[in-house]
Amino acid sequence: MPTLPLLRRLPAALLLAAAALAAQGQAIKPAADDPYQSLPWLDMRAAHLDQRPLRFDPRVQVQGPAFAEDPMNVPITVRVDPALGTVEKIVVLVDRNPIRRVLEYWPLQALPALSFRFKLEQASPVRAAVLTRAGQWHVGGTWVDSAGGGCTVSGATRKDGSWTQTLGEVSGRMFSRAPGMDGAARLRLQVMHPMDTGLVAGVPAFYVNRLSVRDGSGRELARLQAFEPVSENPVFSFDFAQPPTGGVTVTGADNNGNRIASQLP
Hints:
Elements: H1 4-27, H2 41-48, E1 54-56, E2 60-63, E3 67-68, E4 74-80, E5 87-94, E6 101-106, E7 113-118, E8 124-132, E9 137-146, H3 156-160, H4 163-166, E10 170-176, E11 185-191, E12 208-215, E13 220-226, E14 235-240, E15 248-254, E16 259-264
Parallel strand pairs: 1-9, 3-9
Antiparallel strand pairs: 2-4, 4-7, 5-6, 5-8, 6-13, 7-14, 8-9, 10-11, 11-14, 12-13, 12-15, 15-16
């Protein structure tokens, strides 16, 4: 049975515990300016974005389906209003994925626009953070609903073993775009890769983690770093103000050091 001095100290201890719980409750409140009022957002910002100024900005457009019928292949398009100025980098993040960073993109000589597909574990905000040359992050997003499970299921080529026959193969095509659309040309390319998240039992993380697109003179046009949530056999679309000259060379590697190299006419 507790002694009398201990009983006298008990109310003070309870007050301290209550104060600690209250402080913890305040710490996990969502950011006041976050349009999605998402609890993970502050941790995401600290982990994946630096301490530069940041604002939520409708000029960063993230387009995706209202409901992801196939959570392993969720199509996303990011477009940035030219009024923001020169874009240095685009980071795509998903609040409620077990792996929140999807990709990072440096447009370099391309337009600040990108289309791709990714794996979604559950309904979540999908965000694009755009760093401008002025040194500020501009963040836009969209909400994608889903039955979920996209990050914890093996892809088709992993299940049937066919990925070993096509690993690293690249195919692509340059499209002319209609007047009035963003850019004069679009490059769509596919890289054959299982893109394993590492969240399936017995299958380690195995994914393309860097790609570079160059023109015929060797000038780098665009650079991309992908992470585990990007879909199996990923397809990326890049837009250009003018079609690249002299063909296109695509190089890169996955996280196991397997090289990717292809020359497209």
